[in-house]
Amino acid sequence: LFGLFSSVRSLLWTFVLLGLVVYVFAICFAQAAIGYLIRPAVDSSPELRADFVTWFGSTAISMRTLLVAISGGEDWSQFMYMLEQADALYGLLFVLYIMLVFHGVLHVIASIFVDS
Length: 116
What we know:
single chain; 116 residues; mainly alpha; 85% helix
């Protein structure tokens, strides 16, 4: 029981770190979606434009989408392919986000709690 209460402080700081990382990437991907939507693209389908609004329409929606991607709610590759339609750089940035959050932050957090 003492171990549980002593790890609450670390858990709160973990949520702060994860929230900041998600927030920064969400701003970037929401900007990508807005750039894609305002650009007059002849080859863009109405379904893809609707998906951009659904998944990356604002910063808050982008944050939810990023959390869904790392928690297994939706396959993250569909978001990567969608962002690649805006620009290939955004697809690579999304892969960087997945690697950073999933393999970096979440595994390090798990090891901290296992170690303590």
